[in-house]
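batch_manifest entry 22 of 60
target: CIDEC protein
source organism: Polioptila caerulea
requested by: lab member K.T.
priority: normal
notes from requester: please return tokens only, no post-processing; we will run our own comparison against the previous entry in this batch. if the run fails, retry once and flag.
--- input ---
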Amino acid sequence: MDYAKSLSQRLAVPVSKCVSASASMTQQLLAGPAPPPRPFRVCNWDRSLRKGVMAPSLAELLRQAQTALALPVPIVLVLDEDGTAVETESFFRTLEENTALMALSKGQTWTAPKTRGYQVALSRKPPRRIDVACVTFDLYKTHPKDLGCLNVKATLYGTYSMSYDLRCYGARRLVKEALRWGLFTMQATGHVLLGTSCYMQQLLDATEEEQKEEEKSSLPLQNLLPCSLPALPYKKMLQ
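--- output ---
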């Protein structure tokens, strides 16, 4: 009988551990992921000691503040700017990061800061801005002999972005490309001027020919006839 009791007790221990572990895992899964820790500023009742702590919940914040400021338990947290008590987890979640808090132990009370506007600068952050357009310029080199490359990136409303990469090659290659484009431009300009001059010459020649034909057609008919008829022979006149 004693052996059977001891054997049942030995078997009951791992079973109870498995049950408790599975119950804790189920509770964690149902509770959801733990919130990430956030930064806060805490000080004592006379603001002579200030500390920065990280806490994901109100209970953890109370523990961190009590340890950092070395205060006797229990403590109460209030907003440093107006003395509003932080007592519930739901109100704690509404606090912004780097909010200034005051830890009060038994017998201590909140007092207004001596310098007005000091706490506003510490606990309140400026409203979040919405960037309409952001343009960045990135100048870099891919080779020591290169002149440099420029990357221009524009972001609209933090969502749509476009970029353009302007790469500048070495000085020798850059001069070659400039000369090549200059030669091509000169050749194209020469062809355009030559074609224009030939076309203008043809127009002038056609105009001169038309003027000559008009002058020939405008001559009077009498100019085409001889000025005097030749004299008849003498014998024919006597007859």
